[in-house]
Specification:
CATH architecture: 3-Layer(aba) Sandwich
Largest sheet: 3 strands, parallel
Strand order of the largest sheet: 1-2-3
Helix content: 40-55%
CATH topology: Rossmann fold
Distance between the termini: 48 Å
Strand content: 5-15%
Shape: globular
Order of helices and strands: HEHEEH
Structural class: alpha/beta
Number of domains: 1
Radius of gyration: 17 Å
Length: about 90
Amino acid sequence: MISIASAELEVELARSWMIGDTTTDVMTAANAGIRSILVETGHAGLDEMHDVYPDYTVPDLLAAAKFITVGHPRLVRALRTYPKRSCQIKNSVV
């Protein structure tokens, strides 16, 4: 259903978010390639239907909206300021 809506509405799933209060919401987001935010209201992920973890957890819907519009962009910018380091692992026998 998400992929059909994405195609019809020309939505980039990689740039999309799913906000929910159950592990089913989190699993749906993961299966669709969407970032997930679990809100601590409603079921708060305590339904124990699936063994999954959200990308982010926030207290409520307002906090989720603020995180998407303000917090996450700042986090991404901050991570980009750190120098990238390459790591080479040599073949070794253990």
